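Handoff note, outgoing to incoming analyst
You'll be picking up this chain. Sequence as last confirmed:
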Amino acid sequence: MNENVDIESLKNDKEFLEKVKELEKEVKESDSLAKIYQLLDVYLALQEDESKINELFQKIVDKSFETIATKIEKGEKLDLSNPDEWAAARGIYEHAISLYSQNDKKNAQELFLALNHTIDDFEIKDAMMVHAAAVGSGYSFDEFINKLTKVDDSDISNPKDVFIVNFSQPADILLEMMKDEVAKLNARLEKLKKAQES
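Most recent structure output, in case you need it:
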């Protein structure tokens, strides 16, 4: 949303509120992840009740897990040009970041690996491996953000920039610096690939 928008006037704008109601109806009827995210973004901008926001985010996480599990089961990759599959990747990523920030490193690492495994986009795939390797190498969330990333380089108009892909050094150098952890993670991914093939 445009930062110059007067949120208070939007809360009283009948036309805008009708569009929000239409979007709420679409979310209930279609269960589209992309639509749920649209509604969540509106709720966040309008500073809606926290319980409404949390309910939507939980729905996003649950549906994202279903999507990723199905892709892994079928040995398929996420198509980030598909709005719902991109939203599933975003949902898993945001949940993983939340877990990492709460020091739940084991589950965060699993989700970063799942994204690495299910995303074909080379830049995001490598970025997810940097995330997973940083977790396994003992970086706290704050250390990861402050020492390894360049989050201020993000362009919010670029859908890829939902994911942290800009680092203090090129991803391949960071992966080389954490090569022992990367080797362990790649071995785990190989086992998963072999299990899928059998």
